[in-house]
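Hello forum,

I keep getting stuck at the same step: I have a sequence, I want structure tokens, and every attempt I make locally crashes halfway through. Rather than fight my setup again tonight, could one of you with a working pipeline run this one for me? It's a single chain of 497 residues.
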Amino acid sequence: MAKKGQQVQLQIEVGTDEEWEKLLQKDGLIVVDVYSEWCGPCLGMQASLKKIKLEIGGDLLQLAVAKSDGITALARFKNKSEPTWMFISARKMINLMFGADAPKLTQVILDELKKEKAQQEGLTTDRTPMEVTEMADEEKVRHEVAESKEKEIKEKEERKKAKELLERRTKECENIITNLPNYGTVLIFPSARDKYKEVLNEIIDEAGLLIQQTEKVTLNEEEIKEMCFFSQVEDEFSPECLDELYNKQALFILLKVKSTAEIEDIDDTILTIVYGSHKKPPGAKESPAEKLIFEIEEEEEVEGKVKKEKVDLMSIWVPPTAEVRATVLRMFFPRITAEFTIAPPPVKPEHIAIVFPLNKRDEVLHVMHQYPNEIMKHGVFSSEIPDATKLIAKSFRQLEKLSPTDRTYSEKLVVQVSKQKSECVFAFAQLEPLYMSPNANEGKIECELFFPEEYEDEGMAVEEEEPQEEPEKTKIISDEEGGTGGIAKPYYVSLKK
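Reply #2:
Ran it on my machine without issues. Output:
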């Protein structure tokens, strides 16, 4: 029995595998508040739980708080912020509930206490016991929804990147084609590097072209894919050709129209020079492409016998279109194309989501003002759960204009913060947020849910505008916002000095 004046501990605290094992050995119904170290247990529900324990549950009900960070069986709840209630009987999980809904939690406990009493009296119940490490039905649904949303976000991001890349590459090609109409290129394979001059030089000169520059290259798979961005690799190069290009040094030739020559279409001219009237590989008879064909022997086993077969490989390649030509010029002759290329968009910095109650908005805005370049987005939401929240307002002015019936006065302020400056993240952490993404990967997913791509297009700004002269209004200040439920004048906070 506790000594006089000593508080009786009604909730058992566990944080290790050993303590968890001891908890499972207890009789009766065990209700566990599973939490992560960074956010702590659900303090708002403790009074209700203790009341149920003292007035109804008695020895049949055991209350506990479990820090999931150090308990192997609860690893799946690590870094989660949503209140999680696990119901255990005879070492098995018999129910699981999420959220801080006091009436709902109370009802679940009362129902499970009835079943626990019935079970101890030898009666059958509708319980479906499962291992603590198994996912409950609601968990499975949530997991599937989360995976689906994560997949959707990734696919959307990939589509956006692909679209932006296509637009950038297309514009670059247009710039190069327009500004460098007199430059073309030819790829000489390793097998033809020693003899291409005697086949090509004279015909190039007669066509009104000159060799401006040569560039030795050993190509890799990524470079070939980029070269063929506006075509298909398999349409341009056979596997045997690719093998040669990947393993030996080839040569790109930069061709330029002579100042005394007049050539309307340099692509058509070079295709005709190299391939003859066919204008494509393997080339017409007696064309330079045909003369430079390289022959190799391949072995093939047929009916147990090794059969040797001769295979012709092309040894010269010309970009088939103006877009492919422009791509090759950009990649291998940057000296002449640099001014016509477009810098890729800046990489979005790693970021996290940080959630605060509205009564901390002055402190949060102060930090936002200190690090304006690290604040990517912010808004007011119905809850801190990214996949189950609703946007309430994009600024505090919008929030103040809402009708009281449109508010709960328990909204959350969510800030998307760049991780580039650790001191900024630390400053926010010092304000004791309700939630902070545990890492950049989680942060990316959560911020996509809070702030989808179209969010920026709706005019959200980091800085709040200075208010105009307006008639005074009244509003209710809730406990969470730092008030007592009384009437107060509205106020606006600006990030501008």
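Residues 297 and 310 are 4 Å apart (CA to CA). If your local run keeps crashing, start a new thread with the error log.
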